[in-house]
Structure formats: C-alpha cells, structure tokens
Amino acid sequence: MGNFANLTASSEVLGLNEQAGTCLACGRFSEAIAACHQAIKTQPHHFGAYHILGQVLQAQHKNSAAVRAYRIALELNPDCTKAQQGLSQILSGEDLWFPPGDYVSSGLRKIKCDRYFPNLVVDNISSKWQYHRREIPHNRYVDQQFPTVGFITRDEAHILYNTALQFAGKPALEIGCWLGWSTCHLALGGVILDVIDPGLANPVFASRVGSALQAAGVTERVELIAGYSPAKVAEIARSCHRRWSLIFIDGNHEAPGPFLDAQICEQVAADDALILFHDLVSPDVFAGWNYFRDRGWNVAIYQTKQIMGVAWRGKVKPIAHQPDPSVSWTLPSHLQWQWILNHDSDSVKNDGYYYPIIDKLVADNPGQMTVAEYRYIADIINHQSPGNLLIFGVGKDSGLWMDINRHGKTVFLEDSQGWLTQVKNTYADLEAYHIDYQTRRQNWAELLMKFEQGEDCLSLDLPNWIYDISWDWILVDGPAGYTPETPGRMKSIYLASQLAIKYGDTDVFVHDCDRPVEIAYTSYFFPKNIFIKQINKLNHYKL
User: Fold this and answer.
1) Which has fewest Cβ within 10 Å: 45, 187, 298, 456?
2) Which of 10, 88, 85 is nearest to 48 (CA)?
3) What would the pLDDT profile of 119-173 be if each residue is shown by its tens digit?
4) Could you tell me if 378 and 312 lie in one domain?
5) Is 68 in the same domain as 166?
6) Can you tell me the mean pLDDT for 187-208?
7) What does DSSP say about strands 531-535 and 538-542: parallel, antiparallel, or unpaired?
C-alpha cells in the first residue's frame, strides 16, 4: 500500500484532477495535461494526477509516456486499479482506450474510429430532440461544428461493427449516414456498403464523409449515393440488381418515414437478412421496426442509450449484447414487453468446455490433429471470439470451429468437391467454397524458386471479398499433402501469410509442420520474430 500522504489529496489537487478528468472526457487533451501538471506541481507525491495523465497520453496514443505516468502512479499507490488497467492494456497491445462515460458491451470485438473524425467531441447538452434519453449517462458524441445532431453512441457503434463482421463480404445498405460515423463502423466490419442520404448532395457534407472513409481506408467498399429513401433505395435495387443482406435504418425519424423505409427494405432484403434500427425510443421509428414483426420477421431490441431494434429472417442471427449493468434501465411505454437481447451467457465457454468434445473427436478420427493441438487452437479462439476465422480444409472438426466462433464469421476453403458436399450435408450452416489449387506437392521446390524469381505462381483464384476481410485467425490444415500427387500446402501457406500481413493482428496456425513442404514454406513466408509456439506438429504465428 502507498503511504497516507501519497493517498490523500488536498482540496486544490482534487479540484485540478476533476478538471483534468472533465477535459479528458471532452477531448480537450492540452487542458487536461495542463491541469495534471499543475496538480503534480502542487502535490508531487499524490498518485491521482499521474494516472489521469497516463489516461490522457494513452488517449493520444503516446504510449511510452503513458507507461511512465502509470508506473509513477503505481509506485505511489500500488492499488490504483485505473493505472493497473491502463498499463496492462498498453503492455498487452490492447491499445483501445475509451473516455469516461463510454460503455461497450462485454463480448464484443472492440474498435476505435475517433482519429478519422477530427471534430469529434462529447456534448451531452445540445440535443433538443424530445426523445433524447438524457438520463442514460453514456457519452453523446457530436461533430463540434454541428452539435445539435449526435452520432450513435460508442456501444451502439460496436453493435453495428460486430454485426457487420458477421456479414463481411456481403452487400449492406445504410439509410442515413450523418457525417459517416456509423458508416465507418459498418465498412470496417467488411461489408460492401451502399449509403443513401440526401445530405450527400451537399458538397461539404459529402466531403466530410468521404474524408473519414478515406482515413479509415474503406473507400473502395463504400458507395455514397445522394437521394431520399424509399425512392432512391428502390431505384438502386432495380438498376443495380441489388439485394442487401444487412441494412441499417437511421434516416428520417418522423412518420411516415421509418415505416416507408421498412416497407422498401423488406422488398430489397436478401432471403437471409438482418435489419437494424436506431432510436426506437421514438414511437415513429418503432412503427418502422414493428412493421417487420407484423410481417413475420424475428424481432428484438438492444437496451442502449437510444434503443436499437433488430429484425431478421433466414439463416442469420443478431449478435449478443450486455446492457450497461451500472444503469437502472427503463423502457418507454410503446416498448414494454419487447424481447431485449441480453448477453448470451454461454457465448464464451469456460476454459476446458470443449475438451470432452475434442477428446471424442480425436478418438473417433485418429491420424488428424492431436488433443493438445485442438485444445491449443480452441482456447485461443474461444477467448477472443467472436471474430473472423478462415480455415483451409473442411472435415469432421468443422462443427467444432463453427461452434466456438458461432457469433463470428467462419469460412472454409476446400479443394475436394465430394468431401465438401459430404461435410455440407452434415453441417447445414457451413459457409465453404470450392477452390482449385492446380498444384502438385512434388513441385514445391520448383514453385518456390519461380516465386523467388518474381513469377506469380502461388496466387489463388478466390472471391475478392476474401481479401477484403481482416481475419482474426487463419488455420492451414489443407489441402492434402501426404503424397507427391496431392496439391500440397504451398499456396495455402502463402495466402495465409498475405492475408495476415494485409491487416495485421492475425493468429495463423499451420498444421503438419514436420513435413518438408510445410517447413520450407513457413520458414520462407513467416519470419522468425512472429513465431509464437509449437505444439506437436502445429506451428502458431502472430502477425
């Protein structure tokens, strides 16, 4: 424990720390730093200003300086949990820090788009909308030049992003994009996005949205279209032969706007589709969402600051969500008795949950992966899921991977059409694609030599969206490579390395690394400094 002098702050220092915290929450970092420095000058041995200073520096991505501030705070008070958490985030590489007043549901994959919006500030007072839930203490973000219109909250943006991850590579539609905050979160989830908003006819508005998308690196996946829904939606669907799998409705909030948006969206939605609404706290928006219930869709709501609604049909499901447990939640009268999507209690299984399943899988299928190899991969994915999982090769273990990552996106690539058909008959929800490697294992050395000489001989003909997804995990367990005539894993190892390098932060697992081809190609395409661990014949790399 720190001594009493280090733990007790004077009234002046308490005031300065409070001022620094307020400035931090509002994004006024220079003022926050000045207040911290004044507090430290006034009372050099009090920990409080140091941990706030660490938070400010971390928010600015000045991690080295933040680490120093956190460590001083912990020297003065080893029990300072905020300093412990901040230091742990940086040292573990989890560099996502959200200001006080933000909430993001547990179980959701985190993302931070703030740097794409230079005018982003917290403003909890400027909204005049009668349905703004001021009693919910979550930050309301705005563009400081247009403070009367707010963005969706941090938690709501993460619902968008994590939902989009499930639809990566598929067509999506956004109705109403207000300066692009929601648009960025959708596009970064990997969907091919059409955005319809009358404001895009305004050059200033369109430029602001375009700049944010360019900064986020997603312009190639987004089409910005000026116009009004429902007419423009119908026009694009007709002229481009479009049916959207994911739709976000956040346009005109006054009747009959949301109802008309709902009607046209049902007509242009894919057979397997999910539709999200924002601001169900408004009865007019509720009418649009309720249309889907009347039409036989599955419907539910997310308990967020402004309440989001979801409707879905076919072979898709909404993501799980945990409402902020620190808030005493209520519902407006028109939403009483609606199904609230709470966090799925078994969305992340406890350590060891899959072990009996793995034991039986290995016992029934000897000669494949070992128990230790399966457990190693399963534990890593289970702790990080949901996410994007790419697997080379289908098999009797396909159901295991689908279950572990059941709230994420799992894609299989298989070269044997007969085996693919057999596994699809077993797992109806399997998302798998047939590919032709056009190689033989016996030519592996010649292929590598040609590649070194600049020849493009290791590429695969795959759908473009495969290359557009940021894969969290890639497992190379195919194609076959046990005889000279089999395709060998030259191309799958090469493609795994390229997909991982493109976006980074990807775990790559390569099986059968006791064989010459796997040894040669992993040594060539995966540098030694990214090697993590070897379990029996399984190599783990982290790019």
Assistant:
1) 456
2) 10
3) 999 998 888 899 999 999 999 999 999 999 999 999 999 999 999 999 988 999 9
4) no
5) no
6) 95
7) antiparallel
Instruction: Examine residue 349 and state whether it is found in any structural domain, yes or no.
Output: no
Does position 1 have pLDDT exceeding 70, yes or no? Answer: no
Distances (CA, A) of 336 to 17, 103, 129: 42, 24, 22
Q: Please state whether the predicted TM-score (pTM) of the whole model is above 0.85.
A: no
Query: Same domain, yes or no, for 32 and 180?
Result: no
Q: Three-class SS string for 394-415?
A: CCCCHHHHHHHCCCCEEEEEEC
- Helices then strands, each counted (H, E), the chain: 20, 17
Q: Which of 270, 367, 322 minimizes the C-alpha distance to 108?
A: 322
345: alpha, beta or left? (left if phi > 0; alpha if psi -120 to 50): alpha
A 10 A CB-CB count for 12 gives 12
Cα-to-chain-centroid distance, residue 434: 27
User: Does 256 sit behind a cis peptide bond, omega within 30 degrees of 0 on the bond before it?
Assistant: yes
Q: Quick one: CA dihedral 103, 109, 114, 115, positive or negative?
A: positive
pLDDT at 540 over 60: yes
Q: At what angle do helices 355-364 and 371-384 cross, to 10 degrees?
A: 140
How many structural domains are present in the chain?
3
Indicate if 394 and 452 belong to the same structural domain.
Answer: yes
Instruction: Mark whether 475 and 363 lie in a shared domain.
Output: yes
Q: Which residues pair with 221 in a beta bridge?
A: none
Question: For residue 238, what are the domain limits?
Answer: 114-335
Q: For Cα atoms 309, 315, 321, give the angle at the middle one, nearest 5 degrees.
A: 40
Contact 185, 111 (CB under 8 A): yes
